[in-house]
Specification:
about 550 residues, alpha+beta, four-stranded mixed sheet
């Protein structure tokens, strides 16, 4: 909230009593420690700090602070300090030489704390700076690197501290517009309303993780207010504390609570109200919890909107419309699978070749957002008979040209390489069963006394010839891969293993992934085992090895 002058008891009020012993101003202070008892405010974050109070008290505190700093070989750079005083105030000698600024221009940790007018000017300048940064990113020649920088260094992340400070009283929609424009420049894709709504969802929900500032500003400020309230007793003196903790007098906080963009999310509003009554911000995780709930509800509403729009368009009817609606849900669910998006933002530690070219990135983003990859249908150049539709359905399900075999072999080789790095001594397509030589698993190795046989497969969840896969994929991430593993792969080795002398010493694991990157649950478990084995041998964390592993798999 904006800083306001406070009249402290004992400073001009002869009847006032001093702060009680053991109050937040002196509680827990070791003997000889620098005291804030005469100050109204004292806060530090690393090497930045703010102190407030009467000028004489502030001067004594500053002199003591500098003396103690000098004793340990440090000095205060007064050239970087700012002093805000009321007009006409007499500045004591201890504060002479420090640059003064008006009260309405106070800033702390890069956040404006003065008048609403000055705050607006400050936020406008910060927003312009964020927009300039995005224009610079969009001009980079490497589209995949530019997209990664947009996600992690610009847009939402560059103004989240401001949203937490000033909330919904300022409109951050211009940042969303600049982010959408930057994405269009990087990829050459003009996103419609539905595609942009999907792009603004988190990666875990099938989006691009380009979060909307307009939808998040109110939640960010509400959460930050709760976080700050918990810190107030250690920052301000007891006679200032009661006024500072009256949230119902904070206009910015109340404006965030009444933000119309929160109105559709009744579950979130209920959680916020419960937290307000209990003064509980989920242990400082309020913004994460509430934002996640908003994103989940937005995705549900978006899927409903997209499927209903297909019906209103009139281009599809009957079973064709029903299948298309299922495919929309299946695509978003598959993109939400664990590690399905490993390719999206690259990996700084990986092979430089594992970054997409601008053309490859544009196609991958279009497929993820459900946008056409071609201006019109054509005859497939591989099979010569199928219709290559604009959505790329035939292109990803055509068996001609050997592409699917090459993809299968590439996945197999990456998995075998990581197993080899984990000293599992994998055998690739060799006979391992005692009762037959006809079945040769893609990969086999012995782990902890168990012979593990792996069978790699790739399936396309939207294939028109088998709509059951789309229905399973629409139910949960990896649904199509699980359905294929159950229907085709699990029975392939069951009879052979049962006829082995010791069937319990064998384990067959189907490693099935769909073309959007979602793996079946059994594959995820086994692949993580392999990553952990490699991590032990290469002296790195299991999470780093797992990230590297799935990143390489996603590029095959």
């Amino acid at each position: 909230m904006p800083l306001v002058p406070a009249q402290a008891p004992g400073s001009g009020d002869p009847a006032a009593s001093p702060p009680p012993a053991g109050s937040s101003a002196t509680r827990g202070a070791p003997e000889g420690a620098l005291s804030q008892a005469e100050l109204d405010l004292l806060s530090f974050f690393l090497d930045d700090g703010a102190a407030g109070g009467e000028l004489d008290s502030l001067g004594r505190w500053l002199r003591d602070f500098e003396d103690r700093a000098t004793a340990v070989g440090l000095s205060l750079n007064r050239g970087k300090c700012r002093l805000s005083v009321a007009p006409g105030a007499t500045i004591p000698e201890a504060l002479q030489g420090i640059e003064t600024c008006p009260l309405d221009e106070i800033q702390h940790l890069g956040v404006p704390c003065g008048s609403p007018e000055k705050m607006r000017v400050f936020v406008d300048e910060a927003v312009k700076g964020a927009e300039r940064k995005m224009r610079m990113i969009a001009s980079l020649p490497d589209a995949h690197v530019a997209l990664t920088l947009l996600k992690f260094c610009a847009g939402f992340v560059s103004v989240v501290h401001l949203m937490r400070a000033v909330g919904a009283v300022f409109d951050f929609a211009c940042i969303d517009q600049a982010t959408q424009s930057c994405l269009a420049t990087i990829t050459g894709i003009e996103t419609d309303a539905s595609a942009w709504a999907l792009a603004s969802l988190p990666v875990r929900l099938g989006g691009l993780g380009l979060h909307s500032c307009a939808d998040t500003a109110a939640i960010a400020h509400i959460a930050a207010t709760f976080d700050g309230e918990a810190c107030l007793p250690s920052l301000v003196t007891p006679y200032v504390l009661p006024h500072a903790m009256l949230l119902d007098e904070d206009d910015t906080f109340l404006a965030s609570l009444d933000d119309p963009r929160l109105a559709p999310f009744e579950t979130v509003l209920e959680k916020i109200q419960n937290a307000l009554q209990a003064r509980d911000n989920y242990g400082g995780r309020g913004q994460k919890v509430w934002s996640a709930t908003v994103h989940d509800e937005r995705r549900k509403a978006l899927i409903i909107s997209m499927t209903e729009e297909l019906g209103r368009s009139g281009q599809l009817q009957g079973s064709a419309l029903a299948l298309k609606q299922v495919q929309v849900r299946a695509r978003i669910q598959s993109c939400s699978g664990q590690h399905a998006s490993a390719w999206l933002y690259g990996n700084a530690e990986a092979d430089p070749k594992l970054w997409l070219s601008p053309a490859e990135l544009a196609v991958a983003i279009r497929l993820r957002l459900g946008l056409p990859i071609a201006p019109m249908p054509s005859i497939c150049r591989l099979c010569g008979t199928g219709s290559a539709d604009v959505d790329g359905v035939h292109a990803r399900s055509c068996f001609s040209g050997g592409r699917r075999t090459r993809m299968h072999n590439a996945l197999r080789d990456v998995i075998a390489d990581f197993a080899r790095r984990g000293l599992l001594a994998p055998a690739v397509e060799r006979p391992v069963f005692s009762n037959t030589e006809r079945k040769r698993p893609d990969i086999s190795y012995v782990r902890d006394g168990t012979t593990v046989v792996l069978d790699v497969a790739v399936t396309f969840p939207l294939q028109p010839s088998n709509p059951q896969y789309a229905k399973r994929a629409a139910e949960k991430p990896g649904g199509a891969a699980t359905a294929y593993a159950t229907a085709v792969k699990e029975g392939k080795y069951r009879g052979i293993i049962d006829n082995e002398p010791n069937p319990r010493e064998w384990l067959a694991v189907p490693l099935v992934v769909d073309t959007f990157g979602a793996w079946c649950p059994g594959a995820l478990t086994e692949l993580r085992q392999i990553a952990r084995k490699s991590a032990l041998r290469e002296d790195r964390t299991a999470s780093a090895a797992c990230q590297d592993f799935f990143h390489q798999l996603s590029f095959q």
